[in-house]
Amino acid sequence: MKKVLIANRGEIALRILRTARELGVKTVVVHSEADAESLPVLLADEAICIGPPSPAESYLNIPNILSAAIVSGADAIHPGYGFLAENAAFAEMVADHGIAFIGPTPENMKLLGDKATARKIAREAGVPVVPGTDELASVEEAKEAAQEIGYPVILKASAGGGGRGMRVVHTEEELERAVLQAQEEARAAFGNPAVYIEKYIEEPKHVEVQVIGDGKKVLHLFERDCSIQRRHQKLLEEAPSLLPDEVRKGLLQSAVRLAEHVGYVSAGTLEFLVDREGNYYFIEMNTRIQVEHPVTEMITGLDLIRMQFLVAGGEPLKLRQKDVEQRGHAIEVRINAEDPEKNFRPAIGQIETLHWPGGPGVRVDSHLYAGYKVPPYYDSLLGKLIVWDEDRPRAIQRMRRALFETVLEGPGLRTTIPFHKKVLDNAFFRRGAVYTNFVARRMGGD
Ligand code: MV4
Hints:
Blueprint: E1 3-6, H1 10-22, E2 26-32, H2 39-43, E3 46-51, H3 62-72, E4 76-78, H4 88-96, E5 100-101, H5 106-113, H6 115-124, H7 139-149, E6 153-161, E7 164-169, H8 172-190, E8 195-199, E9 205-214, E10 218-230, E11 233-239, H9 245-261, E12 265-274, E13 280-286, H10 293-300, H11 304-312, E14 329-336, E15 338-339, E16 345-346, E17 353-355, E18 362-366, E19 381-389, H12 392-405, E20 407-409, H13 417-425, H14 427-430, H15 438-442
Parallel strand pairs: 1-2, 1-4, 2-3, 4-5
Antiparallel strand pairs: 6-7, 6-8, 9-10, 9-12, 10-11, 11-14, 12-13, 14-19, 15-16, 17-20, 18-19
The structure holds ligand MV4.
């Protein structure tokens, strides 16, 4: 692999660029007009403007991205996360042009991208799923299934995921309307009205397993707890989770079994819910590198993006599962340009004063620089602050210290830093009493 085109922006474009440079791979960064002064553009070997600020005309603009790859002579494309990262048609077109797609195969994406199909495959692979149905054929079927399962139930869009197109239903009276509305919303949002039903797991932990495959074998790189989220936007993640070892073991084995069952290639994440009795259920798989991958890198000492490059270059994974070691505890906080005092509404601005923390066990993944103007067209992530220490209490203390040092100020700029300081001081968080309703129940969120 001689030259990679990075089809993304912000901190993940910088993250990919860093590993490419260490591998001696030339970098081409595509960018919108709004990102012409971004750090990845400034650091790349080549930069190609692919369109106006709006994502549809730039980072989602397949013809322009493919043209940039051909014109620059890139022999690989890394999609990062979001945008085209899980777009099977894009991955197919990249391969059709003889360019390596650094990520899973289009088949992996098609199979696992449909949430009802992913459930079916999980069942075939003997992986526990939440009691529920495949795609609903009728409202009648929904009623019978809900009777069988017991209320509350949750309706989910097959083409949804990440919390989009979900609806909790508490009684049979509301079920019919809910099914019809969910189908309408799914058709409007995803062009696919298929919905399925699951028993609603009250107060679960949201735990996800990192895997990496080379098409022959799959390794797990342990798990992450992502329960601290607001409206399905993760805010703080940590590795490992706080589950008892026998539950963790089952979860990790299930994840590898499912990924091997589909011949999974590259990095991927299997999401599970774990109830208060320690029962774990597969709910969906993300066929991409994720924002929170650094906490896994910190407890294993591995470079996941590097592993993706090597797999995409045709190298079989050299590591065996027993070589994958886990040490200590890592925590990541997402620093967004949002105002926690104003219901997390966007609060962007120019970065006037910027001081990142450092010292032992502290990592900053951010594209910010002093004077950088945060463009309003994209997500609000300014950067991720990640810490590692020998155990969770020490990691919490280190994160509090790192946040204390961080200075990120500018006219009109507000960030989620004060929110994270409160979470780290919260007694329930400190003793690990963390479930998906943590923000709503413990932080007065919604
Ligand atoms: C669930 C659930 C409870 N029961 N499924 C699916 C997508 C993922 N990002 C969150 N999802 C959930 N699926 C069943 N059967 C709880 C969640 C969930 C959640 C749901 C509503 C509001 C906030 C949530 C935060 C994390 C997990």
